[in-house]
């Protein structure tokens, strides 16, 4: 397939989807990018398609009717709806794992069981479908203790508990809101990072490791989240450790899925803690780039992302790639949140964009005056890349200072120099 005048469909409405649409749209061979189900904010960079992410049959119909050349899925809802299998049955190329192959990356409980079965180091855990059984586990649990719901649905879907009382309160809250499973996991003191790989289901290549900031407040305080900032490459991770993670974790996971008849096509991001004692623990993995570091990782890859993803889908990945080229730059990102109960106009964002920052939106809309409006919760991600981490960090915080709205919240210590 020649790489000119292509029509691309991106399925997803997250900040990661926004970052991907920007990246793919920048290639000269791409004629048009559609996004489903795109929030209105996507209309600045693509044509929005009013089809639900979890309706693969209707998405396939759209692809066929509009002569879409290639699709990329970064929506967990769409993956759960088995968009990869539906598109394959319709003879359409898509970069996405099947529902069967992605099960353990979509369910934290399934991931923990899978890691344990594969004898991959993971923190001690318990999985419970009844509140009282979880309470009983607390009697002999070590604290701090991480409590998670089974699926990644909420900003505060994890909690780091320091005592039994807090743990019981949060467990009760999760079951009251209808969670089917609750995971209790030992907290590991150490350095959080994500090890990203790409695979066609058979060959696995590392991309890069990003250092993650999971706690919402400076100094690792506040809510324990899926990530509020990152920097990459992660200089704390040695080549030896990345090689061990590639062969003893990523390849083992992908090979196991392939042997079970469910080859995984896509991105895998392994959440890892480098313990204070020097060992590593894998706490889980996700089926695409996380919201807080999608722009960051994409800005460091010196490959045509559209071509790379397509080669995985068509089966030429193993022959065409020996490694994933990086551009030698470094980057830092931060999630900017709104702690105001009211929607707020964001001042200065256009100037930041004009100055070269990467911005991806999580919970932002535009009003009738084309002003950016931040809604409560995680609002957007700002990313800066440069020749050095220190330069990227300085640029990032200059951008954050230039953006103003009431209730602005962010971590001030991302990639902070060690004193």
Can you put this structure into words, describing what you see?
By secondary structure, the protein is of the alpha+beta class. The chain has 4 domains: 6-96, Rossmann fold (3-Layer(aba) Sandwich), CATH 3.40.50.20; 124-186, Dna Ligase, domain 1 (2-Layer Sandwich); 192-320, 2-Layer Sandwich (D-amino Acid Aminotransferase, Chain A, domain 1); 330-409, Glycinamide Ribonucleotide Synthetase, Chain A, domain 4 (Alpha-Beta Complex). Helix content is 32%, strand content 28%. It is built from 14 helices and 23 strands. The chain has helices at 15-25, 56-65, 76-80, 83-89, 99-106, 108-117, 131-138, 164-176, 239-259, 294-300, 305-314, 317-320, 349-354, 389-402, and strands at residues 6-11, 30-36, 47-48, 70-73, 94-95, 125-128, 145-149, 158-161, 182-186, 190-199, 204-212, 215-217, 221-224, 229-232, 266-275, 280-286, 330-338, 344-345, 358-361, 364-366, 372-374, 377-386, 408-409. The strands form 5 sheets. Strands 10, 11, 14, 15, 16, 17, 19, 22 and 23 form a 9-stranded antiparallel beta sheet that branches. It starts with 5 loop residues before the first strand and ends in a 10-residue tail after the last strand.
